[in-house]
Amino acid sequence: MAVNLDKEAYYRRIKRLYGNWKKGEDEFGKVDAIVVSVGVDEEIVYAKSTAIQTWLFGYELTDTIMVFCDTKIIFLASKKKVDFLKQVAVTKGNENANGVPPITLLTREKNESNKANFDKMIEAIRGSKEGKVVGVFSKDKFPGEYMKSWNDTITAEGLEKVDISAVVAYTMAVKEDGELGLMKKAAAITSEVYSKFFKERVMEIVDADEKVRHSKLAESVEKAIEEKKYLGGADPSTVEMCYPPIIQSGGNYSLKFSVVSDKNHMHFGAITCAMGIRYKSYCSNLVRTLMVDPPQEMQDNYNFLLQVEEELLKELKHGVKICDAYNAVLEYMKKEKSELVAKLTKNLGFAMGIEFREGSLVLNSKNQYKLKKGMVLSISLGFADLVNKEAKKDEQKKYALFIGDTIQINEEDAATVLTPVKKKIKNVGIFLKEEDGDDAEELLGKGARSAALLADRTRNEMTAEEKRRAHQKELANHLNEEAKRRLTEQKGEQQIQKARKSNVSYKNVSQMPREKDIREMKIFIDKKYETVVMPVFGIATPFHIATIKNISMSVEGDYTYLRINFFVPGSSLGRQEGNIFPNPDATFVKEITYRASNLKAPGDTSVPSTNLQNAFRIIKEVQKRYKTREAEEKEKEGIVKQDSLVINLNRSNPKLKDLYIRPNIAQKRMQGSLEAHTNGFRFTSVRGDKVDILYNNIKHAIFQPCDGEMIIVLHFHLKNAIMFGKRRHTDVQFYTEVGEITTDLGKHQHMHDRDDLYAEQMEREMRHKLKSAFKNFIEKVETLTKEQLEFEVPFRDLGFQGAPYRSTCLLQPTSGSLVNTTEWPPFVVTLDEVELVHFERVQFHLKNFDVVIVYKDYSKKVTMINAVPVNSLDPIKEWLNSCDIKYTEGVQSLNWTKIMKTIVDDPEGFFEQGGWSFLDPESEGSCAEEDSESEMEDETFNPSASEEEEEEEDSDEDYSSETEDSNYSASVGSEEESGKDWDELEEEARRADKESHYEDEDTSAVNNSSSSNNKKRKVRPSASRSGPSKKKRRS
């Protein structure tokens, strides 16, 4: 099959090369012809000669000599390659070939001399311009007799050689759209391999405490690119490493790309990783530093390094000299942290393309080349030989920080990062939980690790609880101090209660209507001014519709009655309206009743009561219209005016289609698309409705995946409410369903039904597809906003059941909130706004308890979460403790409305009495508690007299039953029972024997004894009531 050559790309690029040569800038002005000769050398990966071939033809052509003269181009190659090059040599009928010098193809002879062909090429060079100087790539030296004989020919001819590597590199540095596409793909693959393989592998190694050598880990990364799942759909044959991955840790760092990973074991400190992937001959590069339990100083230095990179990205623009960008970054560092300037890497990156590193376009203080739009650079900056002051081991004492990205130069904006792998501390820091068993582990060695852990298990669990209590005690002290300070600051800002809006019907008499009904002393409704004009003592008196509370009409006999009730001080105005009148001391009319006859008098055109009936109907209409308008105005009240959305007309904007919005814009739910623009999102429904959400108005952006859920959700909890659908909303979400929410139970189903299995498989694929689409959208948005907007993902493992509203749902913590977004209405609590959390009804015999969330803003109503299972109590405590939130617990339900009102009314008094410590039973000093333990017991359990009697009665009964069962001969219980002794009883027994003719006296005695014993049992309760002291005597 013939190999195709992209002719259009060749013509475009050869024209660019000749265009720059004719301008005669730098070395181009010195040369009369350009010679590019490529031999065979398997060891050479990057060479300018092979790069220009790939750039022009898309392939490397070994054993090929190219001579570019002023008016013609000569290629000397083997027969196969000449056939391939004929595609561009024949220019007939191709308009793009206009202006391109004609090509002469020479077929290489089998003997090594090729003298005839060499002579033709030398002749062409002599005929080009002055024919004395040839431009070559002096660093490219290929072995073999063929190349040697050609180089000897040039030398023998006395032609002067000039290195044109830099000027050709500058010509090739500006990438076309096709090249940029390939480099973006290469960068995306590098990012995937790093995120999904390398980072995950390092996490596994740290978790399992494995010993893995740097070189072995680097080899595993090289093998990973053979697996399609990391290549984002690319063909593995088109993907290769730009260089072997460089992994360094444990104090030995060299922040260059020419080093190789050593054979030392990976140390859990600062782990630098550099990797670059080449896709279809185009390179990319990525550098990250992972940190295990970094001390604060290391974190500060790392954050500063990120700031330096941001500064560099701002400087790298079209038309800026490389040295100027470098010096600007250096100046920034001197101003912010001058002590780190000496630790900075010597250069900050280089241009990249078909060759990994372009030596003539390195970012340093001497490079005079200007950046151009479309260039792609690999920026890499780091701090070497930093000292860890908290280190105990030798390998921890020195560390380095190294970050790098593949970037694209833009016209005016800062450079675009093509490797959007997150690099903030929270994304690259691995924070391990401290365990008490660590020291023991080091002493005992790895073999005794499990035994040591088992031995310490109980002690560790106990200390974890103690640690939690100690931490909570610290939080309690801090909480009261912080709350007291905050309330004293807010003391001056007293809330002004809003007066009820005064509605004036007519500002002057001229506005009063002159209607016939008014003159006839009938009720008249002025719709324009929303006023009811009523006759009061023969005078037409206007009342604004807002003053009317309600109206009622009734018919009694021959009369119709219309009763009008008005708002007056003391009457309830509704929950939100307050009870304030502009002038409460005025005289108010509470109600007016009008009566009219239902009988038509002779000469009347209509029944008198018609006026009241019409008035009743019209007043209701006007009242409804007024209330609707007021409700709309109230919704708009306090709405903060948002900035206008800046529409980005670029078609490649992040976009999600086929989403539903909650709450609905109209009564019926509608699908639409969500698109990210320059400063916010825009949702456009299929009907054309638009909802704009600006990035700066989003408090929490939450992504709820579809794992274990029937919908996949993007939820936005806003700082300020927005209006749509005539209502204000602070929570807006976009979702799509991922499966059948309803199932037909009437359908006969079989577990191995082929259709059902297929449907399940399709649903699994659908879930995976949707999750990938949403994640991709989120990553693009975070890159677009430069991570100013970050999406939180709920931690399902930490979730617990609860009922914040009417139904029970799964509440899940995120990094900054507690949320439930799958049910409606949604539940979102910002953790930074929480003062403390109180658990109510925590008792052993109850299965559920309630959670009360108190906010730092005491005027805000507390949030209640009911019916939380008691087995979630410990996990919730652990989570709150890790978030530095104070929690308390109690057995009773409290009246929080009264508590919060008391605090707001008298904050000083509240904190003088101990503040929030009233919720915590353990807060009154642990030492005092230990000293007076018996006292506390008495105080804690102090039953009343009646309870004491009952208690003793019960214990006496228990006690008596025990003794009577164990001792067959019953003891004397009371005065009433102790009438007869054993002698008298025996005498009675003998008499009974004689009467019944029994001979066995002993048996009779025993029988009688047991019968008396039974008798005693029956009267036992009365004995216990007579006095508890008998019990003690008997024992």
Automatic annotation (TrEMBL):
Q: Where is the composition biased (Basic and acidic residues)?
A: 483-492, 977-997
One GO cellular component assignment for this chain's record is: FACT complex
Protein origin, superkingdom: Eukaryota
Q: Enumerate the residue ranges of region (Disordered).
A: 483-512, 913-1035
Q: What is its main location?
A: nucleus
Q: Does the keyword Ribonucleoprotein apply?
A: no
Q: Histone chaperone RTT106/FACT complex subunit SPT16-like middle domain spans which residues?
A: 800-890
Q: Where is the composition biased (Acidic residues)?
A: 921-965
- Subunit structure, interactors included: Component of the FACT complex.
Q: What is this protein called?
A: FACT complex subunit
Q: What organism does this protein naturally occur in?
A: Etheostoma spectabile
- Recite the lineage of the species: Eukaryota, Metazoa, Chordata, Craniata, Vertebrata
